[in-house]
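INFO batch 0412 | record 1 of 1 | parsing
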Amino acid sequence: MPSALSSSAASSPPIVSVVARSNTGKTTLLEALIPALKERGLRVALVKHHHHESSFDTPGKDTHRLAEAGADLVVGVSPVQVATFSREAGSADLDAVIARHCAGYDLVLTEGYKRGDYPKIEVNRAARSTKLLCDYDEMLALVTDSSWETNVPLFGLDDADGLADFLVGWLKDL
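INFO prediction complete | emitting tokens
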């Protein structure tokens, strides 16, 4: 499918990290933002950071059993989905993951890479914290339920469409 931003669908797509404290609403925001970006014609990849060793596959299922048997890569294919499971040394390196899996997308969103060097969209709820995680100079936008004196664009927690429009404009300016 052709992309709305075909010139930016290069081998190294732009990366934006969505960051926040736990239980602030990162996933909820992304659940609304991704469809809004897709409605605008973008191909969107998402990389989710997990702090703990965990299996994304379901124990007992064939793909999990075959991975446990020692396969270096297991690819599960259904009529509507393809899933890959691999055990790779250094697989936690975000740049390497994106290089291997995200070429050809217009935008890579990450969830939870707070310490990375990519532009960030911070999600903040006043009930969770009155302090921001990021400095303004690393922040692309702030999504919040309160007001802040800032030089970065502010969006409400339920304004995925406004944030999507902002990101499309930002991508076109790259």
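INFO post-check: The chain has four helices and eight strands.
INFO record closed
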